[in-house]
Each structure stands twice: as structure tokens, then as C-alpha cells.
């Protein structure tokens, strides 16, 4: 756990540095039309490097989002050089004297090409979840999980722009990053090991405050619930979520946040429901959910597909899901699954 937390802390620091000085050249659009920045690659390298260094005798098996294909082309070279410089600024602080070459950076990125599966130990990494939020100066998170024989047994979520205290309806909006980042009470690190509960501490300056155990809210009625969803409606249908919320009698407006910060907020009772209904053709990836999944379960919540079946991370890089994802405290979760059967039935 110590090296996983250290890895996420270091990667989060790199991301914060980049978000502060983000420029258009540092972003490319991938084949699926989603953006990727120097910070996505850089954070992936920093996490893999930190974990491999903590356990040099075993070759790391990691299921991670990014790969080096674009960076190995001539057009990708300037971006590779920028990533290498960024990574070395973090590496120099953690291991004085050590310097990575661009070729080493490429090879470390490709440590993330594991297929995962039902046996053995595999790290699961989303170096920046919510890249659209990251470039839009909103919320994002660095998400690291670990699979042991197909079960998520550890999760760490670094949330650099998330307030440690109450979260307002506009804390996920465009520009929230400028407003929030740098404040001493902003930046959260959620972590959990299976069977050990879920915890949160400040992302930076750990040691200033002891970790606090978190629990999902004890809410049983929709009227008291606050539901969370993606900012991007192309990632998750706002209208299905609104219909389900109506069915449950939810009155508060949705809290829109990018990334797995939504799982973190659910685990600490700041939001009560998280729903995600992607387009029917979209296949969810395990790195978008692994860390948040174990944190919410260990905080007493349930995370399932729309039919109420617990998420299964043992099937490789993707999740096989019925319609979407519903996460909530048990009593509300049961009501939401019933509402989904009515409002968003299986096609
Ligand atoms: N068309 C789509 N439908 C559903 N999810 C999508 C999508 N395109 C991208 N995503 C995923 O949605 C994630 C962000 O979720 P959220 O909306 O909760 O912030 C992205 O993670 P990355 O930002 O790591 O690529 C990406 O994996
Ligand atoms: Mg992405
Ligand atoms: Mg993601
Ligand atoms: Mg990502």
C-alpha cells in the first residue's frame, strides 16, 4: 500500500504542474476521439516506475490506459521529449542521480499492456481519469487498483482538485481547477485495502493529518439523496439519470464531476448516488472503475451494473456490463435497480 500511495502522490504532483501550464500543443486526440496529454503519459510512467522500483525482482504486470504507439512516430517525438523531461523532474526528486532516457520512458509506458484476467496479480492504472476535465480546468483523478486472482484488493485515488471539506454544486464546473488548486484544504487521497475499510487523507503534506475512515451516507430515501454524474453527456446519458432520479423522488440537482472523484465523494457520503449510462455500443474499461470500486465497497456501498450484478474485473481489460453502472448505499441501490428495470429496461 505504501508504494501505491507514493506512486499516486508523485503522479498527482506531475499532473498538477502540467494543469497549471497546460497548452494546446500538449494534447493530442486519440483514434477514439478522446484527448491525451503529456500528463497522462507522464503520470503512467511515474506510477509504473515507482511500483517497479519498490519490487525490482518481479516484472510488473499492469493494465493501464495509455500505450506508446503515437510517441514512437516522428510526429510524436517532441511530445516524448517533453514527457521525458517532466518525468525526470519527478524522478530526480524521488531518486537523486537517476535519469530516464526517452527509450526507457517508452518501454515503461508499455508495461501497461497487460491483459489482466482471472489469475495472478495485476496493477490497474488510469493515469488521468477525466482527461476532458483535466484540459477543461475541472476535476480529474489518478486511479490505481490492484487485482489479485480477478478481485480488486486495493485501490488508491488521487484527486488533486477535490476539496477536503464540503463540495459545492459548482466545484466540478469549468474553471473550478483555477479556483480550487493551491488551497491548503484541497486535494484528497482515498485508499482502501480489501477488508480494511476505506480511508482518506490530504493528497499533499500527508502526515499533517491522520487518515480518516470514510463511510457512505446513511440515506435510504431519494428525497434526501444527492446524485452524481459525468460532466460529459457523451460519457453518460444525463437524461436516463434524470429519469431514474425522478423515479426515486430525488429533488436536489445533480452534482456533475469528471472522473472517479465521484466514487471518492460517494465513499465519504458527500454524494449519495453515482449513475453512469454510456452509449449502448461503448465498452467500459476496468481502469475507469477498479480503484473507486473497492473504495466504495469498503465504505459500505454497492457498485453494480444496471441489473444489480456486482462488477467483475476478471474478464480482461474491459467490463461486461448490463446497460450501465449504479453505485449507492445498499437501501438506495436496491431502489435504483428496481427503477432502472422500469425506466431504462434492457433493450
Ligand atoms: N463515449 C464514451 N462513453 C462512455 N465513456 C467514455 C466515452 N468516451 C470516453 N469515455 C470514458 O469516460 C472516462 C471519463 O469519465 P467521466 O465522464 O466520469 O469523467 C474517460 O476516461 P479518461 O478520461 O481516462 O479517458 C473514458 O474512459
Ligand atoms: Mg483517456
Ligand atoms: Mg478514465
Ligand atoms: Mg485516463
Automatic annotation (TrEMBL):
Q: Where Mg(2+) is bound, by residue?
A: 65, 126, 128-129, 288
Look at the named UniProt entry and state the broad enzyme category this protein falls under.
hydrolase
Cofactor(s) needed, names only, are: Mg(2+)
Its EC number is 3.1.3.7
Asked whether the UniProt record includes Hydrolase among its keywords, one would answer yes
Q: Which UniProt keywords apply?
A: Hydrolase, Magnesium, Metal-binding
Q: What is this protein called?
A: 3'(2'),5'-bisphosphate nucleotidase
Task: State the PROSITE patterns in the record.
Answer: IMP_2
Give the domain of life.
Eukaryota
Its BP terms in the Gene Ontology are:
phosphatidylinositol phosphate biosynthetic process; sulfate assimilation
GO molecular-function term, one example from the UniProt record: 3'(2'),5'-bisphosphate nucleotidase activity
| Pfam families (alphabetical) | Inositol_P
Name the protein family: Belongs to the inositol monophosphatase superfamily.
Native organism: Chlamydomonas reinhardtii
Reactions mediated catalytically: 3'-phosphoadenylyl sulfate + H2O = adenosine 5'-phosphosulfate + phosphate; adenosine 3',5'-bisphosphate + H2O = AMP + phosphate; adenosine 2',5'-bisphosphate + H2O = AMP + phosphate
Amino acid at each position: 500500500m505504501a508504494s501505491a500511495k507514493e506512486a499516486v502522490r508523485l503522479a498527482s504532483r506531475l499532473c498538477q504542474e502540467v494543469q497549471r501550464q497546460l497548452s494546446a500543443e500538449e494534447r493530442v486526440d486519440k483514434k477514439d476521439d478522446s484527448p491525451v496529454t503529456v500528463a497522462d503519459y507522464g503520470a503512467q510512467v511515474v506510477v509504473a516506475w515507482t511500483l517497479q522500483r519498490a519490487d525490482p525482482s518481479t516484472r510488473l504486470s499492469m493494465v493501464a490506459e495509455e500505450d506508446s504507439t503515437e510517441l514512437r512516430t516522428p510526429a510524436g517525438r517532441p511530445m516524448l521529449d517533453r514527457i521525458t523531461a517532466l518525468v525526470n523532474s519527478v524522478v530526480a526528486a524521488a531518486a537523486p542521480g537517476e535519469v530516464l532516457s526517452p527509450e526507457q520512458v517508452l518501454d515503461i509506458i508499455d508495461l501497461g499492456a497487460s491483459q489482466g484476467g482471472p489469475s495472478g496479480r495485476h496493477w490497474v492504472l488510469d493515469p488521468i481519469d477525466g482527461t476532458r476535465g483535466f484540459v477543461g480546468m475541472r476535476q480529474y483523478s489518478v486511479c490505481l487498483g490492484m487485482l489479485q486472482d480477478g478481485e480488486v484488493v486495493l485501490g488508491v485515488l488521487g484527486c488533486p482538485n477535490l476539496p477536503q471539506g464540503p463540495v459545492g454544486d459548482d466545484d466540478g464546473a469549468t474553471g473550478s481547477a483555477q479556483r480550487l488548486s493551491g488551497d491548503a484544504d484541497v486535494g484528497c487521497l482515498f485508499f482502501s485495502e480489501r477488508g480494511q475499510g476505506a480511508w482518506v487523507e490530504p493528497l499533499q503534506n500527508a502526515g499533517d493529518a491522520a487518515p480518516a475512515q470514510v463511510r457512505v451516507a446513511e440515506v435510504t430515501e431519494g428525497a434526501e439523496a444527492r446524485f452524481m454524474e459525468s460532466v460529459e453527456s457523451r460519457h453518460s446519458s444525463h437524461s436516463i439519470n434524470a429519469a431514474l432520479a425522478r423515479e426515486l423522488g430525488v429533488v436536489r440537482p445533480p452534482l456533475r464531476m469528471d472522473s472517479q472523484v465521484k466514487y471518492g465523494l460517494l465513499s465519504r457520503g458527500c454524494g449519495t448516488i453515482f449513475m453512469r449510462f454510456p452509449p449502448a455500443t461503448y465498452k467500459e474499461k476496468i481502469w475507469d472503475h477498479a480503484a473507486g470500486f473497492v473504495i466504495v465497497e469498503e465504505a459500505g456501498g454497492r457498485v453494480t451494473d444496471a441489473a444489480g450484478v456486482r462488477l467483475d474485473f476478471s474478464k480482461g481489460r474491459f467490463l461486461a456490463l448490463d446497460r450501465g453502472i449504479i453505485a449507492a448505499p445498499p437501501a438506495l441501490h436496491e431502489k435504483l435497480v428496481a427503477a432502472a428495470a422500469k425506466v431504462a429496461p434492457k433493450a
